[in-house]
Design goal:
Layout: H1 2-18, H2 21-44
Length: 45
């Protein structure tokens, strides 16, 4: 768990370093919307 969390944390830091702030916020929002849609579809099924 700790190794996975550290690797994902460093990957997210690199991701946010490469992208501008607006692009990073849009990407996070898109991922959140996709997760919400998937959760609602699973709830309906």
């Amino acid at each position: 768990m700790t190794a996975f969390a550290a690797s994902s944390r460093t990957a997210s830091f690199r991701f946010f370093k490469v992208l501008p702030d607006t692009a990073a916020v849009e990407g996070v929002a898109m991922i959140a919307v996709a997760l919400l849609i998937a959760a609602s579809i699973n709830a309906m099924l």
